[in-house]
Amino acid sequence: MNNYITGAVFAPLAILVSACSTQAPPQQQLSGKSAIEITAMSELEKQARKKLATLNQMMDTARSQGIDVAREETIVWFAEQFLKFANWDEANPQAVEKLYSYERYYAADKERLALELPDFERRKVIQILDKGIEVLGQELRGEIKRRPVRKVDWQNAKASDNMFVNPDGKAVFPYDYFSKTVGQPLTNTDIYNDHLGALYHGGENLYPVDHDRAINSFLLKEDGTFDQELMKELTGIPDTNIGFLVHWLMGIPEWVEAQEPEVRKGRSLFTGFDIDNPLARDVWGKILRETGRLTKDKKVIELGFVLANEPHWFAEKGHWTQKYQEMNEISSYTLNKFRSWLENKYQNNISALNANWQTQFSSFDQVQIEIPIDPALQGQPIWFDWSRYNMDRSTEWFKFMQDELHAVNPDADTHIKIMPRMFMYNERSGGIDTEALSELTTMVGHDAKSFGSKNIRPNKSSEWLEKYRFDWGSVSMFHDFLESVAPDKINVNSESHFLSSGQWRDLDTRTSYVRAVYWLATLLGMDANMGWFWARDPDGSPEDRLEGELDFFDPGLGGAYAGSNNMQPHVTNEVTQVMYDLNSFSDEIITLREQNRPIRLFYSETTAINTKDYMTKGYKLYESLFFEGFPLGFATKNIIEKQDNSSWDTIVVYNNSHVTDAEFSALQSYLDQGGTLVLDSHRSLALNEYGQPRGQKLQASKGKLIVLNTSNIQAIKQAALAQVSSSRMPAIQLIEDNGQPFKTTMWRVQAQADGGYLLNIINVGHNTANIKLKLANGQKMQVTDLMTSNTLGAEISVDSEQVLLLAVKPI
């Protein structure tokens, strides 16, 4: 089978690391009965079916009264599906054990877990049915009134300027699961429906290339013609539903390698060839143009083309990706392009490079570099030059891809599945400039994640658990950066890891977490998401790729099944329920999004490349400002130069030791135009990209320059808040008492045309937060819970992970 490296190793990167470890997992007990106590299946199913009958009867009554029951229809659908799944799991214990065995966290306890799973699923079905009966009962009794569900029009929704819209012009947030069960037709309504989402797409390959619809290297034959049988997997997608297509870059045909022996030098985990290789570029240029031509004006590209799956080119010694042949060496093409880059960077002055690198090259044509590079060199000029070039060359590769596509379909939307670690983590040797790529593509793309419970991997930090119920910061800071860079672009999460990943999963995930994390991400900019992952066939069996002996380049997919939403009816149901609510309140969500960001945190890729803890420190300042009632933003050289500076009140420069002259000039220009800047210390901005002292210091000019000479986060926070104009402070004061010396309630306020306000509250802490609301002008208020239409007081108790959407009117 393997005369090339097979495609689509689309598991989260952390899984790749874990797959190589043999450490025994801790015990984890499913809620409900132990293996010895499990009762007969028929008893629990009888209970569930009795409740199903009750709920169906209530739904008939509700319909007769004109009450929308879309939410209950989804509960019924998932209940039926998971009762069927539970029966399959009970009839196939060895298969379930095997699925548990692929994930080392569960492997040692696979027999008990497999035995308990069917009853666990049935009990969770009963749980969602009980909740459905309770809530619909409240509406039938007139205790609450819910807004009818606004569904995504899967056939006719369109990409607008910065949101997806239904034909009625109302914003919608499409949702689905990335890599739905392979082998099922796209017209199968057990897979493509309102409950699981109904986006059509060309996925990725884990078996030979004729197994799925990915756009891949094997479409082009050596004679320059296209493999029409493989192309049918693309052209055969029904032009019925909106969707997206993935460019899968894993494999490379043997004939290319025969002509270009260097083609695999400098490959990465998810890009199986050298992006600087001219033949590889020629192959992909032809594929991009042909597939772009064939799919032009098709609904399946309404959510755009994913130009790459989780791209990165980590080029430092000792990085875990090296065991997957990532950047173990570079090609002559990459080296020569680096030489040209250096010649331009140093303005053809080889003496300047030699002085920086402490070398004695006679010309740029003679420059050599050892790749992978030694991480001990971080902070030195050679480290910066290679790291910056590695980013620039990958950006140029994606520009090439986009240009080829746009040559035949100039209106095609594009995005890249950028891993949040490429921005959120400290390491910058991966060749990804998140800002540059977000500026390049027509949509913003990523696969943002969160943690709903502790990291399951040994020696991995879960520090956020000390203060918060879930890892909200990974979602918020990443989205705020993307939205700062590209505020007018659609934001697509093409593989959302909110439910599970290689680093965390929980067999009894809280539904409150599911609601909170999806609501938070959407509030902060996410327009569409494809969750990781759906791997059940309609009969309950795992999809094709998880059956038999797993023969993948990466065993992570098999490990991803255990503890995932495929085993959790309450989780999968809640995803759809929260997306129903978000779509029903999409006008309100969009209104809350469209606010200015009065405080901008300065971000420098230059400092990030040169230092070891830039993001760790930067997050601490971000965290301190997050709970003040308004959205945070970021400022970079490009943002300052390209965007309206009047949309914010101040830029805060914290822990930015190294900046280029261009970055420094952008900050000075901002002051020259009358801007306000809070600088932690004159030590910030004091060095250039090579660590050389800068003679200049910022001058206030026409603006306001506040130099604090402190690294104290609270002092910097207070100085920043003091610069926010009263018109941009929240019109509602929220006073929080959660029993802790720190805040855990995020909130956003937006004025409405009727003189009232929208107020969104999410408590991300462990404790209930007792909230007092006050209008800035001291007026009394009327508070209405928009989800229930019930009136609340000005004092509210907000449970851990509770989400509230409120209308506040002065009276």
Automatic annotation (TrEMBL):
Keywords of the record: Glycosidase, Hydrolase
Transmembrane segments: none
Pfam entry (one): Glyco_hydro_42
Gene Ontology biological-process entries: carbohydrate metabolic process
CDD domains: A4_beta-galactosidase_middle_domain (cd03143)
Residues annotated as domain Glycoside hydrolase family 42 N-terminal: 328-435
GO MF annotation terms: beta-galactosidase activity
GO cellular component, one term: beta-galactosidase complex
Domain of life: Bacteria
Protein name: Glycoside hydrolase family 42 N-terminal domain-containing protein
